[in-house]
Amino acid sequence: MQTTAKPMPTNATADTIASALSQAIHEHRLAPGTKLGEDDLSDIYGVSRTIVRTALQSLAHQQIIEIKRNRGAFVAQPSLAEAHEVFEARELLEPRTARSAALNATPDDVALLNDHITQEHAAMDTGDRGRALFLSGQFHIEIARIAQQKTIADMINVLIARSSLIIALYWRRESALCESQAHHALIKAIGDNDGARAEELMQSHLVDLHSALNLNELPAVEHDLRAMLLGDGKR
Amino acid sequence: MQTTAKPMPTNATADTIASALSQAIHEHRLAPGTKLGEDDLSDIYGVSRTIVRTALQSLAHQQIIEIKRNRGAFVAQPSLAEAHEVFEARELLEPRTARSAALNATPDDVALLNDHITQEHAAMDTGDRGRALFLSGQFHIEIARIAQQKTIADMINVLIARSSLIIALYWRRESALCESQAHHALIKAIGDNDGARAEELMQSHLVDLHSALNLNELPAVEHDLRAMLLGDGKR
DNA sequence: GCGCACAATATTGTATACAATGTTATGGCA
DNA sequence: TGCCATAACATTGTATACAATATTGTGCGC
To answer: Which residue in A10, A200, B60, B107 has a CA-CA distance of 20 to 30 Å to B50?
Structure first.
């Protein structure tokens, strides 16, 4: 039996769609290189191509996808050079931001961070690696938010989205995703309002991540957009 | 005699329009708060609203303009808090980028920077303060380019555009725009491949700029879009 | 004259139609 | 069979039509 159409919840906005795609990319449900056809997406979300286009342009500005003229939108495939650039930028921004966060953090903030970690562990336990990855990214964004630097937080947000693509392409499997420990230590430093230590920990955490990149590029794969994005278990 | 219509060179692309608007804002020909009507712009550039919209969305992503739903696009009016954030972000990124630039710079790069300064002086001499401001921004972007960090350069690019708005709103006139001297010193450090000094100079240059901001917000003014954007001397 | 309700207008939001371009399939020819 | 030209198709680019919303203007009652 073929499942056809079903226009979807509809009334989706450009932001909704951009978020959904962004999250799907974060969680590695959409692989680098995957084509994002406008008609496909408008069918899936039940809106016109106009809206889809707006969403795609937004993602293109974040360099999460690449729009090739007359060819369409594709999930970005950062080069190795870009990969290094992204992590170098993160190394400039995040350590000092972690320091600010440590100085600003309230108990509520710390609780929220702990909550993040808990969810991260839960996702790991259920084997949902993609979700764990997404949450570990959110952790970094949360720290930027706590630092109350919206401008910097926005930049980090974009860098983390790109990092997710980089991890999808260049991660060497040997180095197990041992983020949890680093994140735990960070929370402690932040909870203690120890700015210097938070900065230091973030710095080394990023260096760890950066050095865990590999040199050989992986090929891009095609996916069933609807299944990847809606994830409903119809077969 | 009233000058009407004249659809303009036409065949303008979204990028063309975004650049034109961006530059106009850089040069303070478009004041913060100015409304950018879609019909106005499509008339001016001779394209459909579709293209104009794409351009506006692009600028909105850079936070150069603000799009209010069902209200339209307006040149952004950064709050004082945002102003500080922008300069704090620049202080995180630019000094170290200047260091990289100093280490990477070729004689050609230095020549190009000197050329920039020359043009800046020329604009100053002809009293074209707007153009001088634009060029001094480009100077910073050029340094990021020399550092060969495209990702960071893009971020700095956006920050500088926002800085231009901030200067329009919060600049205290007393402190004369003495950028030239700081820029000269920077070029020297870069030409000597003296990374440490370049970083130091950039840092203090940014602190100078940051501390030259004022506290009282200026009101926004309306402008004749066509005249501001096309600048052709028809009266 | 002032304030409010409501109508008229203008502007943006969304969908759709058509044009331009790229991709794929087909068929002739060597 | 293999290759190229060309036609059929699919997809994106742009313009326009219509709907939804905000803004402005008008007139009535007080």
So the answer is: A10
In three-state secondary structure terms, B204 is: helix
* Full DSSP string of B17-42: HHHHHHHHHHTTSS-TT-EE-HHHHH
Give the length of chain A: 235
Per-residue pLDDT in tens (0 to 9) along chain B, 235 residues? 333 444 455 679 999 999 999 999 999 999 999 999 999 999 999 999 999 999 999 999 999 999 999 999 999 999 999 999 999 999 999 999 999 999 999 999 999 999 999 998 898 889 888 899 999 999 999 999 999 999 999 999 999 999 999 999 998 766 666 677 899 999 999 999 999 999 999 999 999 999 988 766 554 454 555 555 555 433 3
Q: Which fold has domain B14-76+220-230?
A: Arc Repressor Mutant, subunit A (1.10.10)
Listed by start position, the domains of chain B span: 14-76+220-230, 80-211
Could you report the predicted ipTM of this complex, rounded to two decimals?
0.87
Could you list the beta-strand ranges (E) of chain B.
35-36, 65-68, 72-75
The reply to whether residue A155 touches residue B54, judged by beta carbons under 8 angstroms, is: no
Q: Which residues of chain B lie closer than 8 angstroms to A82, CB-CB?
A: 150-151
Q: Could you tell me how many CB contacts below 8 A there are between chain A and chain B? A: 50
**C-alpha distances in angstroms, A107 versus A125, A191, A198, B161?**
27, 7, 16, 37
CATH architecture of A14-77+220-230: Orthogonal Bundle (1.10)
| Minimum-distance CB partner of A82 among B57, B92, B151 | B151
Which bases along strand C come within 7 Å of a protein CB atom? 11-17, 20-23
- Rg, Å, chain A Cα set: 18
Residue–nucleotide distance: A91 CA to D27 C1' (Å)? 66
H helices within A29-128, ranges in order? 38-45, 49-61, 80-104, 107-125
Q: Are the C-beta atoms of residues A121 and A180 closer than 8 Å to each other?
A: yes
Query: Is B149 part of the contact surface with chain A (CB cutoff 8 Å)?
Result: yes
